[in-house]
Amino acid sequence: MSKLIRWLCLAAVAGLILASSASAQVVPKLSVEVGKATQPGDLSVTLQIVILMTVLALAPSILIMTTAFIRIAVVLSFLRQAIGTNQTPPNQLIVGLALILTFFIMTPVFNQSYQDGIKPYLDEKISKEEAFTKSMAPVRKFMLAQTREQDLALFVNMAKLPAPKNADDIPLHVLIPGFVISELRTAFQIAFVIFIPFLVIDMVVASVLMSMGMMMLPPIIVSLPFKLLLFVLVDGWYLLVKSLVESFRM
C-alpha cells in the first residue's frame, strides 16, 4: 500500500510539471477584428477576402448551374423512380455518379478555361477583368450549345434588354437561367423515354394480376424483378451513360 501511495504521488508531481511546462509554451492567438481602415490597401484586402469567401460558399451552386450536372442528376433520379427502387441507388451514389460524369464532360471546357484565362493571370500577363472574360468564354460556349433560343429570348425579354447581335452580347444573368430551364427540359425528355419500357412492364403485370384475381397483391412487388432483369439484360448503365454523354453538344 505504501508503494502504491508513493507511485501515485510521483504521478501527481509529474502531471503538475507537464502542466506547468505546457502552460509556459507560447500558444498562437488568432483573432478577427472589425475596425477602422488606416490605409486604402487594408480595405481592398478585406473586400477581396469577403468576395473570396462568398465565391467559395457559392461554388457548389455555380458548379450545378453552369455545368452538365443538372441533366445527369435529374435523369438518374427519374431512372430510380422508373425502376421502382426509391432508395436504391442512394442519393449519395447518384450525386457522386453525377459529379464524376460532370467532371468527365466538362474537363475539356475547364482545361481551355485554365489555359486561356487563369494561367495567363497567374503569370501576370493579363488583368483580372481580361482573365475573367477569357476564362468564362469556354463555359459560355458550352452553355450556349445546350440552350434553346426560345429560352434565351424569354429571359432577354423579361430583362427588357435589346436583342443581342451575337452570342457575346448575351449577359451571364440571362444565359445561366436560360441554360438551366433548357437542361431541365432535355432531362425530362430523356426521362420520358426511360419510363416507357418500365411502364409497359407495370401495365402487363397489373393486367395479369387482375385477370388472376390477385387484386390485393401490389403489382410493383411482382414487376420489380422483371424491371431489374430487363435493365441488366440490355446493359442499362452502359446505354444510359453513353446516351447522356453523347447528348451534350460540345
Automatic annotation (TrEMBL):
The chain crosses the membrane at residues 48-79, 91-110, 187-209, 221-240. The keyword Transport applies. One of its GO terms (cellular component) is plasma membrane. It comes from the Bacteria. Keywords: Bacterial flagellum, Bacterial flagellum biogenesis, Bacterial flagellum protein export, Cell membrane, Cell projection, Cilium, Flagellum, Membrane, Protein transport, Signal, Transmembrane, Transmembrane helix, Transport. Pfam families: FliP (PF00813). Residues 1-24 form the signal peptide. It is found in: Cell membrane; Bacterial flagellum basal body. InterPro entries: FliP, T3SS_IM_P. It is a multi-pass membrane protein. PROSITE patterns: FLIP_2 (PS01061). GO terms for biological process: bacterial-type flagellum organization; protein secretion. Its main location: membrane. Plays a role in the flagellum-specific transport system. Belongs to the FliP/MopC/SpaP family. This is Flagellar biosynthetic protein FliP. The gene is fliP.
